[in-house]
Records
---
Amino acid sequence: MNWQDLRWLVPELVLTGAAVALLLADLMTAPDRRRQLGWFAVAAAVPAAAACGQLLAELQALRSGGVRIFADTYTVDPFALYVKLVALGAVALVALVSLDYFPGRTPHVGEAFALLLFAGVGLLLMASASDLILLLLSIEFVSLSSYLLAGFLKRDPKSNEAGVKYFLYGAATTGVMAYGFSLLYGLAGSTSLYDVATRLGRAGGAAYLAVGMALAGFGFKVSMVPFHQWTPDVYEGAPTPITAFLSVGPKAAGFAALVRTLSVGIPLEQVQWPLLLAGLSALTMTVGNLLALLQRNLKRMLAYSSIAHAGYVLMALAAWKSAWALPGLLYYLLAYLFMNLGAFFVALVASEATGSDEIPDHAGLSQRAPWVAAAMVVFMLSLTGIPPTAGFFGKFYLFAAAVDAGLLWLAALAVANSVVSLYYYVGVLRALYLMPPPERTPLSVSPALRVGLGVALVGTVAVGLYPQPVVGFVELARRLLGG
Amino acid sequence: MPILTITLFLPLLGALVLLFLPREDADRIRRVSLGFALATFVASLLILPRFELGRREMQRIEQAAWIPAVGIQYKVGVDGLSLVLVLLTTLLTVLSVLYSFREGHRVKEYNLLFLLLETGMLGVFFALDFFLFYVFWELTLVPMYFLIGIWGGPRREYAAIKFFLYTLVGSLAMLLGILLLYFHLPPGQRTFDVPEIVRQRPLSGTGLLAQLAFWGFFLSFAIKVPMWPFHTWLPDAHVEAPTAGSVILAAILLKLGTYGFVRFSLPLFPEVFHQHALLIAALAVVGVLYGALVAMAQTDLKKLVAYSSVNHMGYVMLAVAAAAHAYGRPELADAAATALNGATMEMLAHGVITGALFLVVGVLYDDRTHTRGVDDFGGLWAVLPKYGAVSITAMFASLGLPGLMGFVAEFLIFVGSFSIIPVFTALAALGVVITAAFFLWTIQRIFLGPTNPRWANLPDLDRREAWVLVPLVVLMVVFGVYPKPLLDVINLTSSQLVAMLR
C-alpha cells in the first residue's frame, strides 16, 4: 500500500485521534470538570472540516474528479467530501448543544463525547466506502456507536428501551444487508463496487434480490418504509441531542452510501432501481406524514417527519436520469441538517423548560422565549417547504428533478404530502404562538445552546435566501467517481 | 434610483427595525410601523412620475443575479396592471396600520407581521421571475396565518389553518406548473424569467402537459380569488380575521388570484384557457349569484361583506374568462380589452370599497357595539351622521351606483363581456340586482327606521377613524366620476395582452 495515500484520510485520522485522546483525557479529568471535554469534541470537528476543504482544493488543483485509494476500497471525490462536511457539521453542532446536557445526567461525560466522535468517523467512512466489505464495516461502526449513545442514560428506562430497540432492529437489517452483499459478491466475484458494476452480467432476478436485501440496511439507516419502525421509539427515548444527531448524521451518510452503491455498483441495465425507489419514496413519504399527523409528542412527531423527509430525498434516486437529482439530494441533506437540528434544539430548550416533550405543554413559549419561538417558526416552515428557507429550495430542487424525469405523479404526491405536513408543523407553532402560556417567566437558554440554535437558524435562512454557493458546490459534487 | 426595490423592501426593513424595539413601548412601535408604511406609500408614489404612459410592456426593470446556476434571478418591473395594484397595496397598508392603533394585544408582533405581509404582496406584483414570484406568493401566507390565528375572532385557529392549507394546496400545484414550463424550454436556455417564458410559451402544443400546467396555475389562482367552489376558506378567514386583516385579505390578497389569471394564465396558456373559458365563465357566474344570494341571507354584517366579495370577484373572473374566450377572434379584440379593463378596474374598486366596508364593520364592532348583527341596529344614521354617510357611500359604491367607482368597473365588465359571452353576462347581471337588494336592505335595517335605544349614546367617528375612512370614500367618488387617469394606465396592459391574444 502507498503511504502517500494516507493524506486523503486526514479528516478521518484527525477525528479518530481526537476521539482516542478524549477517552484518555477523560481518565485524567476530575468529574466536575468533564464538561470541558465537550469543547474538545466541538473543536475537533474544525480541523477535520478544514482538512476536507483542503482535499477538495487539492482535487480541483489536480483537475481530478476524485481518487480511489487502498485497492479501490476507498474513494475520495467531491461528493464524498461534501457529505463529510455535512456530517462534521452535525457532529460539531450536536457536541455543542450536548455541553450542558450530559453533565449532571451521567458521570460518563467524556465517553459520550468520544462516542459521538467515533460515530462521526464512521460517517466519514460511509461517505467514501466503495467496497462492500468496507461499506458494511463503516455502517456497523456508526451503528454500534449510535446504539450506545441512544441508550446512554442508563437510569432512564426510555433511553434503555431506545438503545435496545435500535440494536435489535439494526442487527437484523444489517444481517439482511450482509446477505444481499454476499449475493452481489457471488454474482460479480468481487467486493469492489467498481468491479461489481462491470462483472454483474445478466444476473436477472438474483441481482434484484441482492439489491432488495441491501436496501434493508440502507433503509434502516435512512428510515425508509418498511424499515422505519424503530424510528419513533428511538427518537423519543434517546437523549435529545443524540436524537438530533441520529436524525441527520447517519441519515446523510446512509443516503451517500446508498447513492454510491447504486449509481456506481448497479448498472441500470441490470436492475431498474429508480423505479423501485420511486415506489419506496412514495410509500415512505406518505406513511411518515400520515403517522406524524397523529403525534402529540414533539420528538415522535419529528421522528415521523424525518421518515417523510427520507421519502422526499428518495425522490432524487427515483428521478436519477434528471441532472437535478443528485444536486437536489445533496442540497437537501444540508438544508435538512440545519432545519432538523434546529427543530430538535428547540425541542431541547422546550423540554428543559417544561419538563415535557408533549406539544401542548409548550403552549405560549413565544411569550417566554420570543427568539427561540421565532427560530422554531423558521424551522417548521422550512420543514414544510415554505420560502425563503433552505427547506423550500431543497424541495424545489427535488420536485424539479422529479418533473424533469417525467415523474409528475411522484411530484404531485410529494405536493400532497407537503400540504399534509403543514398541518402538523403548524400545530407546533399553534402551541407556541396561539395558545396562552401557563406562566410568563422568561426562559434562560444556555450560551452553548444559543450558539447552536443561532447557527441552525442562520444556516436555514442563509442557505435558503442565497443558495448559489451551495448550488455551485453540489453541481461539482454530482460528478461522483464512477457514477 | 432602484425605486421598485426600495418600495419592495422598505416594509421588510421596518419589520427588522421593529424586531429590535422593546415590546413594552407600544406607542413607539405603532409610530415606527406607521412611519414605514407611509414611507413605502410615498416610495410607491414616486414610481408614478417615472412611469412612461406610452409604453405597454414592462418598465423600470431592476435585476440582479441570484442563483444563476439554475437560471433564477432577482427581476422586478411594473406595467399598468401591477402599478395600480402596488399603489392599492401601499395605501391600504397605511390605512390598516393606522386603523390598528387601538390594537393593544402583542402590538410588536402585530405590526411586524403587517409590514412583512406588505413586502410579500408587493413582491407578487413586482416579480418578473417565476421563482421570485413564488417566494413572495408564499411569503404572504405566513403573516396572515398568524394575524388570523392570534388576533382573530372566536374560531380563529380553525380559520387560520384552513386558510393556510387551502392556499398552500394551490401554490404547490402552481409550483409544479412552473417547473413544467421551465423544463420545456430548450436546454441551455432554461430560465425562470417571466417575459421570456411568456414569449416562448414552452408548453404550447404539448397537449396533456399544457393542460396539467394550466390547471395547476388555475387551482392556485382560483383558490386565492376565490372562485366558487374553492371559496369555502373565505367566509371563515374574513370573518375571524381582525378588522385590518380582513381589509388586507379582501382588498389585496384576493387580487393576487385575479392578478395571476391576467398576468400568467392568459398569456401563457391562451389555447387551453380558450378551450375552458366557458367552464370558467360558468363557475364565475355561479360565484356571482351564489355570493350574492348567500350574502343576502346573512345577519352578521361581516359575513355579509365577506360573501359580497365572492360575488364581486365573480365579475372579475367573468371578464377574464370572456377575454380568454375571445382568443383567436380578432373581431372581438376590442371587447376583450374592455373586459380586461373592467376586470382590473373591479380589482381596484373592490379593494377600495370592500376595504372600506370591513373598516366600517370594524369601527362599529371593535370599539363600540361588540355586535355586528344586522338586526341589532336601526336608525343609526341619526345617531352617527358621519359614520352613516361613510358607510352608506361605501355600500352604494359596492352595489354599483353610478358616479361611484364600482359602477365604472362593472359597466366595463358587462359591456366587454356581453359581446363575447352574452348569456353568461346576462346571468351575471342578475347578481347586480341581488347585490343592490341586500345592500339596500342592510342600509335600511342598520341606518334607517326607529333608533334602537341601546345605541343612542354611541360616539361618532373620531379623527383617526376619519383619517382611515375618508381617503377611501374620496377615491370611490373621484374615480367614479373621472376614471380616465386610472383607465389610461390600466389600458396599457389590457391592450398589450389583447394584442398577444389575437
Note: The mean pLDDT of chain B is 94.
---
Amino acid sequence: MTAAIAFAGVHKSFAGTPVLHDLSLAIAPGSFTALVGASGSGKTTTLRLVNRLIDPDGGTVHVGGDAVDALPAPMLRRRIGYVFQGIGLFPHLTVAENIGITPRLLGWDKPRIAARIAELLGLVALPADYAPRLPAALSGGERQRVGLARALAAAPRLMLMDEPMGALDPVTRDTLGRDYQALHQSLGLTTLMVTHDIQEALLLADRIIVMSAGRIVADATPRALLAGPAPPQAAALIAVAARQSAAIAALGQSAADG
Amino acid sequence: MDDRLAAALAALPAALAAHIVLSAAALALAMLVALPLAVRAARRPRLRALALGLAGTVQTVPALALLALFYPLLLAASALTRPLGLTLPALGFLPSLLALALFAILPMLRNAVEGLIGLDPAVLEAADAVGMTRAQRLRLVELPLAAPVVMAGIRTAAVWTIGTATLATTVGQTCLGNLIFTGLQTEDWVGVLVGCLAAALLAIVVDALLALVQHGLSPLRPARLALAGGTLALGTAAALAALAPASNTTNRIGAKNFGEQFILAALIRDRLAATGAQAQIRSGLGSAVAFRALAASDIDVYVDYSGTLWTNVLARTDTPPPAVLRAQLTKALAAKPGIRVLGPLGFENAYALAMRRDRATQFGIRSIADLARAAPGLTLGADLEFLGRPEWRGIAQAYHLRFARSRAYSPTFMYRALADGSVDVISAFSSDGRIASQDLIVLADPAHAIPSYDALILISPARAHDARLAAALSPLIGRIPVERMRAANLMVDRDANKLTPDAAARWLDPAQRR
C-alpha cells in the first residue's frame, strides 16, 4: 500500500542551524499520528514540509505517492487540510466565506459551495445561523471549529494539525479533541498532528512519534509506549503523564474515601 | 468691491476645472507608482528602506522649489528627446503634474507599506495554507485588510495635493492659485479669499468622498463605494469637459508677477478675442521663466522690456540709446531663438531707484551718485528679482553703491515698506502709478548705468510667421503712452476704488478710446 506521507533522507537547516537530520518516515493511510517533543525538536518543521510551507534542503517528501514539488505549492495545499494554533480566520470574511475559501479557489460553482458550507457547519457542530457572522463575533473554541471546517471544506484525504487546541481552555479542548477524533474515523482521514501535550497525544492518536533535536527517538502505539521500555527523551515525557494521572487518580480516591 | 467679486467669480470656473484636473491627474499618477511599489517594498526590507528614504527626501524639498526645478529639468529632457521628434512642454501642466505626483507618493507609499507589513502573520499563513497563489493572497486577503490604512494615505495625499496645486501658477499652469497670486500682487483680497476658499472647499469635499470610499471598503459596502467613487469620477470628468474646448488652438499669453503684466496680458487677450481667437493667460511667471517659455514656444506671446532682455538674455553691459538697443535686440532675438519682436507699446518701464521725497530732501539726494554717499547708512528694498539681476550689478559697480542692508519683497509690499520707513530706497518701476501717488522721487542716473526699458510685444518662434496673430496685436504698437500705463497701473494698485486688471485693460485699450 502507498504511504499517505513518506519522508526519505530529509535535511533542513535554518540560518545554518540544522533542525532535521536525515529524517525518514512513512505514515499509513487512515492513521492518526501524533508528533510530540519539546520546543525546537523539529516536529513543526516536519509537519510544514508536507504542505510545502517549508521546502527541504535535501531528501524527498511524497504525499499519496507523488513528490510534493510535482505540482505548484498552491495546488498541493488545496488537497491537504491545515489547522494551526493561530487559526488565521480571514477577519474580513464571514464564517461561510472562510469555510468556502478552498472550494472557491478550486472553482466550484456557488450552489455546490453553499451546500458544502451547510454540511460542514453541521459536521463541526456549529449552528447554521453562524454562517453570516464575522470571526470577531465568535469565541475561541467556535473559531477553531470554523478553522477545522475550512480545512475540511474541499474534502482532503490528509489533515495536518499544528497544536490545533493549544490556545483553548481544557474543557473546550477535550470536547473538540474527541469531536475531531470521531470525524477522523467517520471520514476516513489520515491525520498528522503536532502537539507538546503527551496526554493529548496518548488519548487521540493511534501512533506516537517522539522527536528530540531533529531526530525521531521513539515511534510506537500509545499502549506500547506506556508499556516501555522507552529511550530516555521519550521516557521523561511519558513519566510526567503517568505521574500526573496517578496523582489525580489518588486525589480522586482520597476524596471518595474522605 | 462688487466688481472684484464678480471678476473673481468669473475667473473661478476655469481655474477650478483646471485645478481639479491637475490634482486628479497627479493623484492618479502617484497611485500608479506608489501602490505597486508598496506591494514590492512590503516584501523586501531593503527596497522598503530605499523607497521610503527617497520619498522622504523629496518631501523635504519645498514644494515651490520642486515645481521650479522641474522647469530646467524638462527643458534639458526636451533637448534630449527633440532629435526623436518629441518635444516636452517644460511649462504648465507637465511640470506641475510631475512635482505634485512626486510629493503625493510619500504618504501613499508609507501608509500602504505599513498597512501591508502590519497584517496578522497567522492570517497570511492561513492564506498560503488554504492554497492561495501570491496574486490571490494579495487580492483576496492583503489588499482588503490593508485597504483602510492605504486609503488613509491616499486621503492625506489628496488634501495635500489640492492645497499645493495652487503653487502651479508659478510655472504657468492655470489653477486656483491664479486667483490667489494675482490677488496678492494687486492687493485684491477678494480674489485671494475666493481662491483660498475654493481650494479649501474642494479639499474638504474630496476628503469626505474618499472617507466614504474608505468606509465602503472594509467591510465591503458596494453602494457607498459606487456613490463616492462615482461622484469623484463624475466631478473629474465634468472638469475635464469644461477644459476641453479651451485646450486646443488657444493662444497662450504669458504674464510676469506684477500688476502691469496682468493688465497687458488681459489687453492682449481682449484684442485676440476681438478677432475671434481664443486666449488663455499664464500669469505669475518669473522673468527668466517667461522668456525661456516663449523661446520654447510654451507660451505664444508676452510683453517684456528691452533693457531686461538686453542685460539678462544678451548679457550686454553697455547702454546704447533706446532705438539702437531695440534694433540690435530685435535682430539678435530673431536670429536665435527666432523670437519675433512685434514692436514697442510706446511706454518705458525702467528699473529706477526711488525714495520718499521727505527722506531724499533730508539727505540731500537727487541722483544715484548722491545716494552712493549716504547708502552705507541706508536700507535698500528690492523686488524678488532685482538683487539677482545684472542691472543691479551694473548700477552698484558704476556708482560704488553699498547699502547697510537690503531686503527683498513682492512688489506690492516693497512700496508698503518704503511708505512706512522700513526701507529708505527701493527698486521701482518707472511706469508704476505709485511713484506719483506716493510722491516718490526717482533718482537720476548721470552715469547711464541703467539701459532703456521699452515695453515690447514678443511672439514665440512657433508663431513668429502667424499673420493673424501679428495683425490682431499690431494695433497696440506705439499706442500706449506712459501716462496712460501709469494711470492704469494705479487703478489696480491703489487702495481705494481698486479696479481688476481686466477692467484696467478695458480702460487702457486704444480701440475703446474715441
Note: The CA atoms of residues 396 and 426 of chain B lie 14 Å apart.
